[in-house]
Amino acid sequence: MNVVPDTSAVVDGRISQRVDDGDFAGATVLIPEAVVSELESQANKGEESGWDGLSELQRLADLADAGDIDLDYVGVRPGPEEQGYAHRGEIDALIRELADEHDATFVTSDLVQSEVAKAKGLEVEYIAPKTEDVGRLSIEDFFDEQTMSVHLRSRVPPMAKRGEIGEMHYQRIRDDPSTDEQLKEYAQEIIQSAKQSHDGFIEIDEPGMTIVQFRDYRIAIAEPPFADAWEITAVRPIVKTSLDDYEHADELRGRLLERQRGVLISGAPGAGKSTFAQAVAEFLADNDFAVKTMEKPRDLQVGPEVTQYTELAGEMEKTADSLLMVRPDYTIYDEVRKTNDFEVFADMRLAGVGMVGVVHATRPIDALQRLIGRVELGMIPQIVDTVVYIEAGQIEKVYDVRTQVKVPAGMTEEDLARPVILVEEFETGTPEYEIYTFNRQVVTVPLEEGDEKETGVSRLARQEIEREIQSVSRGHVDVDLQGQNKAVVYVDENDISYVIGKGGGRIDDIENRLGIDIDVRTHDEKPSSVGTTATTPKGDVVTPEITSRHIIIPLDGHAGETVEVQADGEYLFTATVGRGGDIQVSRGSAIAEELEYAIDRERQITVVSA
To answer: Which residues form the signal peptide (predicted)?
Structure first.
């Protein structure tokens, strides 16, 4: 009896097993050189399948040495052209031709390959891939009821995150350090169990990094040279919730069922965002919505009625395109991190799909801030109308997001009306923030009560008055706001007449433009608490670059963040850092003139989070 296995049967270890069972005892096993080439290529890439296949070839060699089978290698190694078209079945075709040439039984664990071989008239033995019930993993011994994650690293004692949601502590759980040998054994057991079990699969298999989903555990295995040492990190959810477990459950249920929504679930790492997202997914599925997820890796613990998708061909855009054909009512996107993720989220939402995104944010408003600069400002309320902020496993804040054409809070002139994004506290309807364009910059203004702290609107108003007066004066200008409709400006004595103008005409024009009464005085009349009181600059010191068209403020690593730019600690303007990690202010604009004025006078330019 002649037997020709393909790569899938060799990788699965099924030929030596059939010899041991007696089915292939005394057979002549013919290994195609094309199979050896594929296994060698996979092993060189660090893929576990390649090493599994090479181990099977060694077992077959041992069986041949024992006289249980005859073993021979046949055919030729595929050339670069065949290898380049392996995904189109070129190498599979070479293996089938060898089975036909040697009048051999063709053995495969690939169903498609089996059907093609039968159609070609070959004698085929299809052996289904091995799956079996796998018991407890050794790594599970490190977990107890309050353990969320276990961190094993070569030459370091095992560590774990333990505690209640929002109160996790990273702690040592054993004094003896782990060894390379121990971690390799754990890794081999995890990978083999994922392959053999109905409850596991390999999510990512790249050189140096393997990510496995096994039952409730998401396990990342890193090895050199990708990592500087062997490391295994295993994570599992320690609590599963329903929507009823959260405050505002009734209001949120009604909101989600009313129509498809755009929801951002935000919070710090470990706050319980994914746990809440899972509760939302199961609530929607229980209420007759078709629900899917987009995850990389897939680790939401949802019921079987919710299909979990990952990247298609390495791209979430392709996953989104596929989902738009499926037309789910809601999609849970865990998690939205990069600009590309926000764009995919926005595209699906604008196509009419209800979207629930999980976003890292340390403040509720930061979830919306991360959209600024990534999508058009005016589209934000159409993309996201609800923000849920999770802290310590509970809903801390819910925002309603909508657009209204109005005069921003703190301004009075009707000509200043513009589209404003209102961010309101969900339960009370109290506005907490306004987001709008001010002097070509996107600003997020907190609507604070009381006079103890200067509000965002006050800063913007003071800044605008200062710009207007500075444009008609030669010296330094200070502004003291006396309320929403009145301000006192202090200028050099020589500038008084020029700022006021003939018959008060110039200051009248400025007052009409700004919608505020302005009293012009000299610096000598200024109280010591106004304007130039010494302050200690805070934040990151930056060095702006002045080009022919822009003033560029470099802020690497802060793309998408909203920041305040200050000169010697005094507020200049608020801006959102662009995708390239900088702020670009067009020269000739009022903001650029003020910034250039500060630079020329060698004032220290700093940037702080808004």
So the answer is: none
Q: What is the pLDDT of residue 199?
A: 79
- Closest of 518, 507, 448 to residue 482, by C-alpha: 518
Contact indicator for 93, 113 with CB cutoff of 8 Å: no
Name the average pLDDT for the chain: 85
CB-based contacts of 439, cutoff 8 Å, min separation 6: 464, 573, 589, 590, 591
For the residues 347-371, what does the mean pLDDT come to? 92
Flag whether pLDDT at 415 surpasses 90. Answer: no
| Structure tokens, 324 | 């738009």
The phi-psi region of residue 189 (left if phi > 0; otherwise alpha if psi is between -120 and 50; otherwise beta) is alpha
Q: Which of 426, 372, 387 is CA-nearest to residue 575?
A: 372
> Collapsing DSSP states into helix, strand and coil, what is residue 116?
helix
Q: Please tell me whether residue 3 adopts helix, strand or coil conformation.
A: strand
CATH topology identical between 2-126 and 456-525: no
pLDDT over threshold 70, residue 610: no
Burial tier of 35 (Cβ tally within 10 Å: 0-12, 13-18, 19+): buried
Q: Which of 521, 448, 447, 443 is nearest to 482 (CA)?
A: 521
**C-alpha span between 377 and 387 (Å, rounded):** 16
More confident residue, 470 or 295: 295
Domain 456-525 has CATH 2.40.440.10: no
In this prediction, residues 264-268 reach a mean pLDDT of 92
553 phi, psi to nearest 5 deg: -110, 110
- pTM, two decimal places: 0.56
CATH number of this structure's domain 138-235, picked from the four choices 3.30.450.90, 3.90.226.10, 3.40.50.2300, 1.10.1040.10: 3.30.450.90
Q: Residue 54 and residue 52: Cα distance in Å, rounded?
A: 6
- Residues 355 and 263: their CA atoms lie apart, in Å, by 6
Calculate mean pLDDT across residues 388-413: 86
* 560 closest CA partner among 429, 411, 413, 374: 374
Q: How sure is the predictor about 83, in pLDDT bands with cuts at 50, 70 and 90?
A: low
pLDDT at 536: 46
**CB-CB contact of 339 with 333 (8 Å):** no
- DSSP, collapsed to helix, strand or coil, labels residue 547 as coil
Q: Is 3.40.50.1010 the CATH number for 2-126?
A: yes
* Closest-CA residue to 391 (of 299, 266, 274, 281): 266
Q: Count the Cβ atoms, other than its own, within 10 Å of residue 539.
A: 15
Q: Which residue has the higher pLDDT, 505 or 588?
A: 505
What is the DSSP secondary structure assignment for residue 375, as one 8-state letter? B
Q: Let me know the angle formed at the C-alpha of 181 by 179 and 183, rounded to the nearest 5 degrees.
A: 70
Q: Using one digit for the tens of pLDDT, what is the confidence trace for 85-134?
A: 444 557 888 889 999 999 999 999 888 888 888 988 999 998 876 655 56
The domain made up of 243-406 is a member of CATH 3.30.1360.30: no
Domain positions in the chain are 2-126, 138-235, 243-406, 456-525, 540-609
Query: What mean pLDDT is predicted for residues 428-432?
Result: 90
Residue type, 605: I
Name, in order, each residue with C-beta under 8 angstroms of 249's C-beta and a sequence gap of 6 or more.
243
